[in-house]
UniProtKB/TrEMBL annotation:
Pfam families: CoA_transf_3 (PF02515). Keywords: Transferase. The keyword Zinc-finger does not apply. This is CaiB/BaiF CoA-transferase family protein. The keyword Transferase applies. SUPFAM superfamilies: CoA-transferase family III (CaiB/BaiF).
Amino acid sequence: MTAAKALQDVTVLDLSHLLQGPFATQLLADMGANVIKVERPGQGDLFRTLTFNNRWVGGTESPNFLAWNRNKRSLALDLKAPEAKEILYKIAETADVVVQNFRPGVLERLGFGYADFAKVNPRIIYCSGSGYGDSGPYLARPGQDMLIQGLTGIAAATGRGDGPPVPVGSGFSDQVGAMNMVYGILSALYWRERSGEGQEIKVDLLSAMLAHQGQEMLMAMNFQQDFVRPKSGIGHPGMDAPFGVYPTLDGWVTVAMSPFKRFVGVLGDDSLLVYDNPKDLFDKRDEIWGKLAALTKGWTTAELMQALLAVDIWCGEVKTHLQAEQDPQVKHIGAIASYEHPTAGTVKVVAPAVKMSKTPAEIERPAPRIGEHSREILGEFGFDTATVDGWVAKGSVAEAK
């Protein structure tokens, strides 16, 4: 028997694409929400055509799409077709949430803005995601993840001081934006339980990335001084030695906030204790890192980890994605899962990250094919077979082939 789900009575009309919106709706779907993903007939979500390393899961499916669209059903619908309003307004009558991340103004011009849905259902919660908000000098700019990382300081604060700014190696801005979407939606659902009122939510990547660098922004603004990236492997431009990434004989080890004297004691060179004062540990951190790194290179990763952990140094191995998959703690907590896809076969995925005792998140559906559930969804909302047949023949609605 399938366990109860925390959001099993919530219906989400998902008009989003690429990463920010789809990740947000996948998080809701993992908790049981009925997510109806609306896609373009024939083309679908743009992420279906994008991939990494020119590799396709099962030879046909985009890993980018599969990563963010499990537990959803796909309705393939041409938003410009006259039937689209009839269909989406009908769904909106009983839906709880609409999620979209088109450029500002696009859906409003098509008749699918917050005001349009609120007329149909005043309790609707309408969440929009954008790059920079819905007005201002950057309105026409593309709101892509790496561009936002560059604008908000995180790229400038990452990497070595003698090299270029370094973006984070994942779609960090989009994923932070997705978390803000979920945070806003769940807050709005709770408010609606008390007030009976729906509302509009606006999330933008620029604000999200600034908010998630709260301590760095506070320091820079209040002291009117930007962080300066060190030339060594210090892991954060505001931290002093020994914070950083250190080479070993066979890899790398990270060391976080830890007593310098204790770290030096493990490495066995007391001459370095001359640096053990707050001013030198920051001002001379590159010099110190070089001397420490020369010593850590004489240890294997396993040997150094064992010695550091024995004296309560905060440390960890640096692992690749494949090494992370095989990590014993990752295995222990069940962080990796899989599902069966009709064309891609067995797909390995990251499991839902939030564990709930009474309403657990589960992977119950693979990422859908374009229009795979068009007939099923339209039937649920009262459209008869003949009507749907006509729409399919016309091309305004599509189904999976």
